[in-house]
Amino acid sequence: MVAKSRKQTGKSPTTQTDRDKNQLVSPPGKSNARRPGREGKAFPGFHPNGLAGIRHKLGLTPSAVVKHGLTLLLGKLGALHLSQLFENDRHFSHLSNLEKEMAFRTEMGLYYSYYKTIIEAPSFLDGVHLVMNDRLTEYPLVINTLKRFNLYPEVVLASWYRIYTGVMGYFGIPTKMCWSINRGDGLTPVDSCEGMGDPAYFYVTCVFMLNGVMMSLFFIYGSYLSGSRLGGVVTTMCFFFNHGESTRVMWTPPLRESFAYPFLVASLFASYILGYLSPTKMQSILVTHMITLAVCFILMFGNSMLLTSFYASSLISIWAIIAMRDHFAQVFKAGIIIWVMQGLAWVGSTVLLKFMLSTILGASDDAHISGLIKSKFTSYRDFHTLMYTCAAEFDFMELETPLRYLKTLLLPINLLVVVLVAGRTFQDLGRFLRGGGKASGKSDEVLVYHSLQLVAFALLAVLIMRLKLFLTPHMCIMASLICSKQVFGWIGEKCKNQIVVFAVMAVMAVQGLANLQAQWAIIGEFSNLPQEELLDWIQDNTGPDSVFAGAMPTMASVKLSTGRPIVNHPHYEDAGLRSRTKLVYSMYSRMSGETVKRNLMKLGVDFFVLEDSWCTRRTRPGCSMPEIWDIEDPQNIGKIPLCTHISRNSRRHFTTVFSNDIYKVLEVPKDQR
Question: Carries keyword Transmembrane helix (predicted)?
Fold first, then answer.
């Protein structure tokens, strides 16, 4: 019998036979078997709406209706595309609440746990108080997670969810529909809910809607930069055709990268040095950045990492160089020499100021960033840099990425645009150096800025592959310039230019549509029975104050789904947390069992979740956990890793209280002193 609660308008239950679940498959967390029923469903909130009556009500001209209608349509398509990919990949609509939470792995699970805390609290303010006085994330510490993490998106979404469910409940309007899903294979049935009243549905739907708005903004940006709505179409087409290289929001939450932003100001400063931005305009931009940084500093309760970042140091350094521009002009000859000296002064003063501020404020949270950059250019390695560089997304850009850009013509178009803009720029510089002044207008400033920004993002992406998510969208924006009269006016009249653009779009579509079809063909279902067994065991057999340690991704799930205190988690940007994780991960070193046991007892750990895969997994030579530890612990090189001994027999040091094919829970003895 199918059980359902509030029924949404336009939905109807199916029979139990339709709901019966195919056999589940074990990790890595997804299978091709689908729970039948409700196929091809995206998330609620994405139902097509007509544009009839807009012109009559708002008095818009036909061209304005077309323009705004296209903008809204692209946003709608972007959100639908993301939601459908997410549903196809995980069959999210058929997952139980626990399975949905398990699908939010690593940092996503950590961030979502604070959203869950706020919506489950007696009131919104009680929830905010709990996340500002968190006792679960880094036991035994009490931390302000709003200061430590960038959690304002979760705070805002939680407030919206509480308002939405409160208002709908007041008027008696159903917000979700629940079903009993028979999973088969001797597994107990689970309740599965869909609709905006379901917390997980609400969360991901808002994320997809936000990214749909981003698609509309890409269209507007491309239209503005190229001076043609056709340029906006080119930008959005490039984004869709290179979707897998542009975003990961359909698989994971939006990334919260911040250390790349100094390179944004790099591009601005280069535009100023070359004379494309006046000192007054540059200072106005810097003031905007400084105010934004100050607001972030206040909202994050004085997070010192913001003040000691390369970004903050860059702002101060550039401001000082602009203020001293007359002194530079007196000492150095106008032209290339003064440009080079200003650039060197910026680099030197930024680095010096950053380390001075870090020393004065005693901040070391972002020390791993310096180590990561250092490891890219030297043979430097330590435990923390290897934790990053052994992951493919933090390695150098793979060769396949530019090849994929090449197949969709994104790379050739961008190279051509940059060459043409560079040619115009060198002509301007040549006239300037010959004393003829700089013959460039406001539009040239924009083109030079975006070209320099593209170069900055390209350098970042080459060094750290994950940062191609900054590069690819900017390449899509730059591709809009094939519609620009300013850059491609030499082709001829408008009709000829449009013919060339449509021909290019047709060639792009060959590989682009193949890429989209490959994404649409990803059909699976999230399933992680071993972790479900682990979380159920923890919930049923440990006290609410039991403290856990283990692999960072697993700890995020333990905190989210069981509410147990943990000592380490995936947010690796804090110096103290890195030290804690290093102690926890000594389980995967070649140290003695007594040493590791003392490390865990020092942290107050009651249970350690051991995963054999972390002991044996090796992404490339030198990147298994025991090999990473060999850098820090050379005296034990050659010994069998402790995790190997423990997986065979833990009785000498720990007591095994739970075990399945993937996880083993070890009880840590209490300190008898």
Answer: yes
668/439 Cα distance (integer angstroms): 73
Distance CA 474, CA 450 (A): 8
> Would the pTM of this model clear 0.85, i.e. be above it?
no
Distances (CA, A) of 255 to 117, 248, 458: 21, 8, 18
Mean pLDDT, each 10-residue run in order, the chain (673 residues): 33 32 36 49 43 46 66 83 87 88 89 95 96 95 90 92 95 90 77 90 89 86 89 93 84 42 50 68 83 86 83 88 81 76 87 86 73 85 89 87 95 94 81 61 74 90 88 93 88 84 95 94 88 95 95 94 95 87 94 93 95 87 91 91 89 91 92 56
Q: Is 567 helix (H, G, I), strand (E, B) or coil?
A: coil
Residue 161: its pLDDT value, please?
96
544 CB-near residues (< 8 Å, 6+ apart): 563, 564
Q: How far apart are CA 309 and CA 366, in angstroms?
A: 7
The alpha-carbon radius of gyration of the chain (Å, integer) is 28
CB 405 within 8 Å of CB 242: yes
Sign of the Cα torsion 120, 121, 124, 129 reads negative
Which residue, among 501, 499, 413, has the nearest Cα to 231 in the 3D structure?
Answer: 501
Q: What per-residue confidence (pLDDT) applies to 555?
A: 95
Q: The tokens 């993301």 sit on which residue?
A: 82
pLDDT at 278: 75
CB distance 528 to 25 below 8 Å: no
pLDDT at 21: 32
CA triple 502-504-509, angle to 5 deg: 90
Helices (H), ranges, 300-407: 304-307, 310-323, 325-331, 336-361, 367-377, 383-389, 400-407
- Provide the token pair at 464: 């750290």
Summarize the chain as % helix, strand, coil (round to 5).
Answer: 65, 5, 30
CA angle centred on 266, ends 262 and 268, rounded to 5°: 115
DSSP class of residue 59 equals: T
CA dist., res. 609 & res. 553, Å (int): 11
Looking at residue 223, its amino acid is S
User: Which residue is it, tokens 């961030």?
Assistant: 111
How far is 311 from 160, CA to CA, in rounded Å? Answer: 32
Residues 481 and 226 sit within 8 Å (Cβ to Cβ): yes
Question: 140 burial class (0-12, 13-18, 19+ CB within 10 angstroms)?
Answer: exposed
Whether 164 and 198 have beta carbons less than 8 Å apart is answered as: no
CA atoms of 503 and 354, how far apart (whole Å): 50
List the one residue out of 168, 191, 162 whose CA is nearest residue 21. 191
Residue type, 295: V
* Cβ proximity of 5 and 178 under 8 Å: yes
DSSP assignments along 354-384, one per residue:
HHHHHHHHT--TTHHHHHHHHHHHSS---HH
Q: Are 456 and 263 in contact (CB under 8 A)?
A: yes
Q: In this structure, what token pair is assigned to residue 156?
A: 């805002």
Kindly provide the b/e burial profile for residues 363-385, where b requires at least 16 CB atoms within 10 angstroms of the residue's own CB. Answer: bbbbebbbbbbebeeeeebebbb
What are φ and ψ of residue 142, in 5° steps? -110, 115
